[in-house]
Amino acid sequence: MAKPPPPPPSTIRHLTTLDKTLSLTLYNLTQPLLPRPILKLLEISGDGRLFFPVLISILLSPLPTTHPTLLSLLVNLLIGSVLDLILIGTIKHLVRRPRPVYNKHMFLTFAVDHWSFPSGHASRVCFIASLIHLSSDLIQNILGVNWLSLIVIVWAFLTSVSRVLLGRHFVFDVAAGAGLGVVNAVLVFRFLNCEFFTSVILSKLLR
Fold first, then answer.
1. What's 126-140 look like in SS3?
2. Residues 63-108: tens digit of each pLDDT
């Protein structure tokens, strides 16, 4: 018979207990105060099943061809979103932390969605907000506005918090997901951007 996995170190157990207590407290305190439909709307707005079709539809529309810089931004969003999907799915599969027991009425698509750590919603929305913030000069040149970054950051913050208030995740899940999203945005913006992959492809074709 296979031996059961060893218990986690005492420090991790204490942190996990603190995380569960804090998350349950926030969940119970806000249930009578915040309308659940608003939290659900935030959940839907950060869902990959909505984000990917919308992003791909915009990429396939005539709009990006009129603005090459917009096309670059959209491709960067797609690159980072795919990377986020792979990274979060892999970590969830490895860690396998169960979701809160009070999580209710959640629609699950993939097997890894049964696991809680880290929050995919938090990583996705924080990636989007961070990349848009890093690209704020580019967006201002395209749209002529400088307030879009602030709006997206507020949306990302509220959506991330809603994961705890809906009972979908623990606080540490959301914090880890948000941190991964920010790191992902910096990585894509600095290194794995559209220009980088274009140069790699052109170098291969010109050989």
1. HHHHHHHHHCHHHHH
2. 776 777 888 889 999 999 999 999 999 999 999 999 999 888 776 6
Both tokens of 104, joined, read 């209710």
Q: For residue 201, report the phi and psi dihedrals to the nearest 5 degrees.
A: -65, -45
Q: Which amino acid is at 81?
A: S
Using an 8 Å Cβ cutoff, are 137 and 189 in contact? no
Which residues, at least 6 apart from 1, have a Cβ–Cβ distance to it below 8 Å?
none
**Span 145-199, pLDDT tens digits:** 778 899 999 999 999 999 999 999 999 999 999 999 999 999 999 998 877 776 7
Q: Which residues are catalytic?
A: 121, 169
Strand partners, 98: 115
Could you write out the DSSP letters of every residue in the chain?
-PPPPPPPPHHHHHHHHHHHHHHHHHHHHHTTTS-HHHHHHHHHHT-HHHHHHHHHHHHHSSHHHH-HHHHHHHHHHHHHHHHHHHHHHHHHHHH-PBPPTT--S----SGGGGB-SS-HHHHHHHHHHHHHHHTHHHHHHHHS-SSHHHHHHHHHHHHHHHHHHTTSS-HHHHHHHHHHHHHHHHHHHHTSSHHHHHHHHHHHHT-
Amino acid residing at 178:
A
**Angle, vertex CA 87, rays to CA 184 and CA 137, nearest 5:** 20
Amino acid, single-letter form, for residue 143? L
